[in-house]
Design goal:
Order of helices and strands: EHHHHHHHHHHEHHHHHHHHHH
Largest sheet: 2 strands, parallel
Helix content: over 70%
Shape: globular
Strand content: under 5%
Strand order of the largest sheet: 1-2
Structural class: mainly alpha
Number of helices: 20
Distance between the termini: 35 Å
Pfam families: MFS_1
Transmembrane segments: 31-51, 66-85, 97-118, 124-141, 162-187, 207-225, 246-269, 275-294, 306-325, 331-351, 389-409, 421-441
Subcellular location: Membrane
InterPro entries: MFS, MFS_trans_sf, NO3_transporter
Oligomer: single chain
Family: Belongs to the major facilitator superfamily. Nitrate/nitrite porter (TC 2.A.1.8) family.
């Protein structure tokens, strides 16, 4: 095998000798650059979570509901983009698609830089510009699908958790760095005048160099796997699997909550606690991102369904806490409960994602039980293809939370004057996720392929 071929045809991660000799090094190199590209994708996706908080003082006369729409629409577009991005890896190759998906991020960043210095921009046009940030949200699906092929099954929870966390933490990066870099004239290529000392266009310009670095890294240090090639038709078989839809529902509860709360958190602080600086908002996505590998690690050792089930309980409890403290206008309590909520979204992200390959592996092996090693090998190959597609597909549906949660907060505030109605709805949703996890993945029953076998397998 040459040092860095564009396409690798011989890839056997489950073969321990191959893995230790060459596979491990190649897989880790691809993981590193996948994380870099995905990190920037998440950062671009969530740019508007900070930009919207500064638009009123920059002279934009949008209502609170419209500001939440600007935060929400990249979430919706990002979710929709994840569907084609899921199947792009197996069609074009992981390296090739990473190059394209990173390079296309110049569109949302440069268009943002151009229009945020023009206060007369109509809302519909600004909404269109904000929607292009959703391109960054698509990167997650292709990145996770790609990395799932590189690692052996025993390490998928760790690898996918690390890859996802590296991307998720991009939310924290954009919310920490953007308020700081918007005060620096040195990167203001447009030479526009600052508003209250803020160069709002820097929110887009600051990502131009990192995007270029990500493209460079993908070109020179990543690979395509021929073993990951598959027709879209074969991958679409997952749509007919009931567990694809069950896991997608649960993933809205975990990742959908993470990305939705991350997007809404700065504006929620701004509207409910106007005396508090939004610079503190990065803490939520930070703890949520850092806890994601923990969820994957625990799931590898204890079982994804067990961790997911117990995790929904503190998620619900923290939501009750947020409901109470936002009503009391107690910011310390509000922040504490939200940080717990973010930690649980991260743990749940890791554990639910670990469940996906386990479920498809168990179901495919069940179908060929007693049919010999040849059939077993085919089943494992099918499981790998299907779980790779499912990882992206489920991630796409889960990302809808990035639209639903900010929209919910915006409508709740518009209708009732506060976010409590939205929080009560989210609480009821977590209760339904808890019930579904138990019924399908923890309930022991005499059914052969049903809840009983999956519970015994500790998926």
């Amino acid at each position: 095998m040459t040092k860095n071929p564009t396409w690798i045809s011989d890839w056997r991660p489950e073969d321990e000798a191959f893995w230790n000799a060459t596979g491990k090094t190649i897989a880790r190199r691809n993981l590193i650059w996948s994380i870099v590209a995905e990190h920037i994708g998440f950062s671009v996706w969530l740019i508007w979570s900070i930009v919207t908080t500064k638009l009123p003082q920059a002279g934009f006369h949008y209502t609170t509901d419209q500001l939440f729409q600007l935060v929400a629409v990249p979430g919706l577009i990002g979710a929709l983009m994840r569907f084609p991005y899921t199947f792009a890896v197996t069609t074009f190759g992981g390296r090739n698609w990473t190059i394209f998906s990173a390079a296309i991020l110049f569109i949302p960043t440069l268009s943002l830089a151009c229009f945020v210095s023009q206060p007369d921009t109509p809302f519909w046009l600004m909404l269109l510009i904000a929607s292009t940030a959703g391109l960054g949200g698509g990167n997650f699906a292709s990145s996770m699908t790609n990395i799932s092929f590189f690692f052996p099954d025993r390490m998928k929870g760790w690898a996918l958790g690390l890859n996802a966390a590296g991307g998720n933490i991009g939310v924290s990066s954009v919310q920490l760095l953007t308020p700081i870099l918007m005060t620096l004239a040195v990167i203001n290529l447009f030479q526009a005048s600052p508003v209250d000392g803020i160069f709002l266009q820097n929110a887009g310009l600051m990502w131009v160099l990192p995007i270029a670095i990500a493209v460079f890294g993908a070109v020179f240090f990543m690979n395509n796997l021929t073993t990951a090639k598959s027709s879209v038709k074969n991958q679409l078989a997952i749509v007919k699997r009931k567990h694809t839809w069950i896991m997608a529902y649960l993933y809205i509860g975990t990742f959908g909550s993470f990305i939705g709360y991350s997007a809404a958190f700065p504006l929620l602080i701004k509207t409910q606690f106007p005396q508090i600086t939004i610079a503190i908002a990065f803490l939520g996505p930070l703890v949520g991102s850092l806890s994601r590998p923990l969820g994957g690690w625990l799931a590898d050792r204890i079982g994804g369904s067990i961790i997911t089930f117990w995790n929904f309980i503190p998620m619900a409890g923290a939501t009750v806490g947020v409901l109470y403290f936002v009503g009391q206008k107690d910011f310390i309590g509000f922040l504490s409960m939200f940080l717990i909520l973010f930690v649980t979204t991260g743990i749940g992200n890791g554990s639910t994602y670990r469940m996906i390959p386990s479920i498809f592996r168990e179901q495919n092996l069940f179908r060929v039980r007693g049919k010999g090693d040849a059939e077993r090998a085919v089943a494992l190959k099918t499981a790998s293809i299907e779980s790779g597609a499912a990882v992206g597909f489920i991630g796409a549906i889960g990302a809808v939370g990035g639209y639903l949660i900010p929209t919910g907060f915006g409508k709740s505030i518009a209708l009732t004057g506060g976010p409590q109605l939205a929080l009560a709805i989210y609480l009821a949703f977590y209760a339904s996720c808890l019930g579904l996890t138990w019924w399908f993945y923890l309930r022991r029953s005499p059914q052969g392929e049903g809840a009983g076998s999956l519970a015994e397998a500790r998926v």
